[in-house]
Amino acid sequence: MTHLELDSVTKVFGDPEKDGVVAVNDLHIDVPDGEFLVLLGPSGCGKTTTLRMIGGLEDPTEGEVRFDGTVVNDVKARNRDVAMVFQDFALYPHMTVRENLGFGLKREDNGMSDDEIDSRVTDVAEMLEIEELLNNKPSQLSGGQKQRVALGRAIIREPRMFLFDEPLANLDAKLRKTMRTEIDELQSEVGITSAYVTHNQEEAMTIADKIAVLNNGQLQQLGTPDQVFNEPSNLFVAQFVGSPDMNLFDGTLSDAGDAYRVDMDTTTFDIPKALVEGEITADEVLVGFRPQDLYQVRNRATDGPEFDTEVRVVEPVGTEAIVHGTSFLGDVTAKIGTFHDLEPNDQMTLTIAPEHVYLFDANTEKLLKGRLVSERSENEASADSVEA
């Protein structure tokens, strides 16, 4: 296992003194031994460039990449003992699965005999449940089988670090879910420090120990999946993490004794100060509602803002539906369970619990209040305690 550190890492393509393009800017990331880091962000945010600097395929313009406290900036990729898995699998088409798996071991000067290599190949194939495919060539494999072989080729070397560059991008939706679960289980089993690049926030939330959210080459937040979802550092993180997208509305904030009063057009509600860490001094705010936190007044306890909504579209997704509507606040998206009697042009009234409301400074876009997941106080009605 390896302790990975990125200390003030910057990467500029071109001349830094002239018209160079800053791909990564002053990045600080600390990944303890055995942790699974996901680099998350939109296209062009610098996540793949960061991964390539960790692997030694790109040199930092400034800063240090450290493995277990040792600077590896000048260590060539082949000497860093990292294994990379790419989205295109990169298998040798003329070799069998057995030969693909054992190729790296045969190239290394590790003193292993052919029998020892073959034994290692068999063990890894059994781990990945591809032992029946050892004599097949890549052209005879499905996408998921090819991905397993690519993973096996990385695992068999027992490297100090795994690097994954969108390894599931070429798989269909069902297979993506299966493979990401297998990658997560595999990483936990072998306990090797790993960095994984994706733009898919669902992937990031399900497999990461820590998520580094990047935008325009800068680190926006480094935290656990719960932290980046419930306590996003700023508006960008809040909007990028979570599906469907967060509802955002303009509001003004004022002091109301033991609470902060939020005014949004024709609705006003209070957020108890006990739900907020520190003092809020901003007057102009952006108010955020996650779609899954909204519920219908006629079915639930009400203790937050209420707003009438005209249904435009109902999108069933199993036992729930994503409902798009229009209210006096603007367009609203809610994810609700009681949707079977809803049709376009119907009216419904939505509300949200104060502890689930997000507040952002309208000027700086910094988080002022996140989504609390702790239990409500005893004197407050729980939304789930009222029968539908």
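The record above closes out task 2.4. Task 2.5 opens with a second protein, given below.
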Amino acid sequence: MDLRILPLAFTMMVGPQIMSAIIFVTAPRAVRASLAFIAGIALATTAGVAIMRGVAALLGKAVDMGHTSDKGSAGHIMEYVLVGLLVFAAAKNWLGRRTAEPPKWLKSLMTAGPRKAFTVGVLLILLMPSDLVVLLTVGIHLQHHHANLGEALAFIGLTVLIAALPLLARLLFGRRAERAMPGVREWMNTHSWLISIIACGIFIALILSEG
């Protein structure tokens, strides 16, 4: 399994994604809704990686990716471009950190059932521009290193684990976790920009350090 792409799992789940997971564990049908949401995240992440791996393979046929040791290869240039997009997104979050507000649709999740929770999990991964950039980055990374989908299992697993953390906390700590969730949600809302920057920084460092 390719562990170099693991930091991007944190980038995948910051913002509305993890906030949705926290809201679901405080909803009336918390366990069922949360399990459905996690299933949606798992399906969408797996499908997204597979699709973007295919896109990267098509790009590889059109453009010679080059050897991984060649810093000027097309594969590395594509990775640098995608990293640049992640940096741009992180910079945008930094600049808008004082006025950032959660999407209004998050409030509707308090009454969501399992079907809606599953749909939200799928759409949050496959329709969020930032997550699409992350998935494409993963796909190109796998293609450039001649790795198959199995090499991304650690990335997929960590993304799903992060989505499941609020539910695991509720099951393990009960009412103490329920009381803490609103505060955690507020902290995530006001500091998601920082988490995103840290995750992007780690990934950039990994890319630049590859020989």
